Structures are given as structure tokens and as C-alpha cells.
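Async update (no meeting this week)

Hi team, since we skipped the sync, here's where things stand on the single-chain job. The sequence we agreed to prioritize is pasted below, unchanged from the tracker. I ran it this morning and attached the output directly underneath so nobody has to dig for it. Comments welcome in thread, and please keep replies under the output.
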Amino acid sequence: MMERIVLVTGGGNGLGRAVAARFLADGDTVFITGRNAGRVADTAAEIGAKPIPADASDPAQVARMAGELGDDLDVLVNMAGGNTDFTASASASAVGIGTQPDGPLAKLERVATAWRANLDANLLSAVLTTTAVLGKLRAGGSIINVGSIGAEYAATSYGAAKAALAAWTAGLSAEVGTRGLTANVISPGYIAETDFFRGRLTEERKDRLIKATHDGRAGRPGDIAETAYFLASDGARHITGQTLHVNGGAHTTR
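Output:
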């Protein structure tokens, strides 16, 4: 396989870093983006990637990133995101927000803010990045969006955003297929060795998440990285418009 050009958003840590490292191990050129410029630069130096600091939910920053990327691209992995409820709750507690009762309008404004944050981080980020670089993707290329098992329940803004991401990807596949591109979603279950839960994962909940699997173990970053690598391979050229669940059987499909 020829050397490819790969873009991984949210590549500064966690699953994004693991995915970037997997493509680098195959000799590909990998660009990583993220909002934290220092972390992106440090990770790039550690694993051998090329850093482009950018917030994937900010149109101006995405446009700048696309301009710095170059003319050609083979693989796009939209990894940027995460449950913004975790960080928002921590920030609110730190300044005392939510300690006093509020009225109906304040409650609605708080809900609107929370939902917009998760939609921006998990849906709009992928839409903006894909739109910005779509013209650079060469025939035989792949668009890989990262969803969540939470999309199957969607009781929260995070789950709803990931469900919308899967629906959008299915439609995107039909649009780009004639150009020789594939578009798929990887939907992880519980993955250990990441900071997804921002320190809010109790041992009790961790045990429940593992017990829900069929293989009795937590997922690992490498599980997602290998799936992304496969979806971008020659062996996956007839797989498109799909959501691939990587959760040890915690959610099954037929």
C-alpha cells in the first residue's frame, strides 16, 4: 500500500492519539488537530505526527486548518468530541452555579447551552471538518467518524449528537460513493485508558459496563485504532454507510 496522508481530529490524546499512532506505524503521513495547542504539539513530537492546532467546531479555525493541510488527503478520522456535560458540570460547580434554585427561563437556557455544546463538539465538528477537506480526498479514500454506544439510547445531548452523527454519515456515504470514497462510523463502548469520564467513573459503574460485555473486558484504545485502520484499508472498500460497533457485545445488532 502506498503512503497515505491522514488527518485525525482530536489527535492530541486518548483514542485520537492511538488512531494517529496506528497509521504512523504503517508509514503514513499523519496530521493531528486539537484545541489544546501545547498538547497537540507535544503529542506530535512524541509520535511523529504533524500538528495543526484547531478547534474543529470553529469555522474559522477549521478553514485555516484545511488551508495548512495541503492539497491531498486519503483518510479523515473525525475523533474530536467528548461528552461536554462532564466538563461543563465541573466548571459550574467550581463557580457555584446550580447551588441556588432558578426559574423556568434559566433552566431552559441552561438546557439549551448544554445541548448546543454537545452538538457542536460531536456533530458540527465532524460536519465542518469533512466539508472543509472533502475536495482534497482522493479516490480510494475514507471518512471515518467516531460515534458512541450512547447513540443507541440517546437520552442525553451527547447520545443524541452521536446518533445524529451516524444518520449524517449514512447520507454522506451516498454522496461520496461515486467518487470512490467510503464513509463509516465506529461506535465504541466503554474504553479504558482514556480520560473520557473526566474522573467521574465510579468503580461500581465501571464494573457494570464491563459486565455488560460478552467477552468480559473493557475496550482498549487499540481496538478502535485497529478498526479505523481496517476501514481505511483496501480490504474495506465495499464497506460504507455503516456503523461498526466495537463494544464487546454490550450492544448487539443483527
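Quick observations from my side:
The first strand starts at residue 5 and ends at 9.
The longest helix spans residues 104-133.
Reply here if anything looks off.
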